[in-house]
Design goal:
2 copies of one chain form a homodimer. Chain A has 228 residues and is α/β, with parallel strands linked by helices. Chain A has one domain: 3-Layer(aba) Sandwich (Rossmann fold), CATH 3.40.50.300. The first copy, chain A, contains 8 helices and 8 strands, in the order E-H-E-H-E-H-E-H-E-E-H-H-E-H-E-H. Chain A has an 8-stranded parallel beta sheet with strand order 1-4-3-5-2-6-7-8, sandwiched between helices. The interface between A and B is medium-sized, with 34 and 33 residues.
Chain lengths: 228, 228
């Protein structure tokens, strides 16, 4: 837990200090699963990560997590997350996606983090972030029920390169023309192996399944249990 | 009205055939106000344009409109609009924003359009489209009530370069943590002259004010009434 907010800004002079593969390997060796979280603006990335931190904080022997959060400007998201989890705000100065050098500087600002989960909350954008490997083990895409179930085929690369689809804002389902089944079917046309996790960060529905999915996936990818 | 859907695709070889200023001038001479519509994916651009076409179609001597609609892939939006208005689908093949050469090809596919309003529905993205002048007279940004009222300062360029902010999905206001006043105040910090138009394309609330705003703005910019 930390209420301190650190902000790192894009350094346009910085060369990539290492490849995404090297970053991923370093995190693997520490036992840290790196999760790159993508979505449109306002789909609920920050709310999901806050709900995840709250869920785990209430449990004994829960995984430790930290968040590197990206935006064009402001440290608003880091301030929302700071009561619940260690967090570093990254600002891109207008760029539409995160790149590895900024993530590495944010990781350094976080200190010697060796917890089980490092979440990278990307800039709100369904297009550009899909083309950039940030050294993550797992790419998670959020689609909120208010965005419409016709989005997968319209933004194919984001869906094709992700391993999990979180359908967020399930609490609004009674008020919007959205079918979880239709969205999942459209997404599976593009990426048949996509795990689909409907949830509401507002009322907590599905948060336990989401956290269980993360823990199972970490064990499967890193070959380690949380207890190790 | 046309139920025919034409699709034009990005031609990566095409040089810009004319400048945005030249395109704007040609449209001014025809009496056509060009409106570039920006938002996140799923904020309701297509629904707003369909509601606009329906509103005008019920009125005598209403303005004539056409829509050029952009997406990475699919002609889904054009199919939604085709029952209500002439429309051409533009697909960018993965690019995160529209550029003028594609708009000009779509305009040619539309034929000799000399109606009062040409809407360009940009790719769903709050970042990249803000940096590209498509020859519009008016840039309109949609922010849906489900995206959160903290977005303006986080995506400053889109707000700074727009003349109007449509707050969409007003029907969902009872169910989401969103204040129209807070969003407007945040946006006015960035662009004090921004017109703010709250509405719901679903239940029709605010659509008349939106259409009146468009007609007044056209008269003010082009110096012509719709009757001319």
């Amino acid at each position: 837990m930390s209420a301190r907010v650190i902000t790192v800004r894009r350094d346009v002079q910085a060369a990539a200090r290492s490849s995404a593969a090297e970053f991923r390997l370093r995190c693997t060796e520490r036992g840290t699963l790196v999760v790159n979280v993508l979505s449109s603006p306002g789909a609920g990335k920050t709310s999901l990560l806050a709900a995840t931190a709250r869920f785990w904080s209430a449990r004994e022997n829960a995984p430790r997590m930290a968040v590197l959060v990206g935006d064009l400007a402001t440290d608003r998201d880091a301030r929302r997350l700071a009561p619940w989890t260690p967090v570093v705000q990254m600002t891109t100065g207008g760029a539409c996606h995160l790149e590895l050098p900024l993530v590495e500087r944010a990781m350094a600002a976080l200190g010697d983090f060796d917890g089980e989960f490092l979440f990278i909350e990307n800039v709100g954008n369904l297009v550009c972030p899909a083309s950039h490997d940030l050294g993550e083990h797992l790419r998670v895409l959020l689609l909120s029920t208010t965005e419409g179930d016709d989005k997968p085929a319209k933004y194919p690369k984001a869906f094709r390169t992700s391993q999990a689809l979180v359908v967020s804002k399930l609490d609004l389902l009674p008020y919007v023309p959205f079918s979880v089944q239709a969205a999942a079917a459209d997404a599976h046309e593009i990426q048949p192996d996509l795990a689909v996790l409907p949830l509401s960060a507002l009322n907590g529905q599905g948060i336990d399944e989401w956290c269980r999915y993360l823990e199972t996936t970490r064990t499967s990818i890193l070959g380690q249990s949380n207890a190790e």
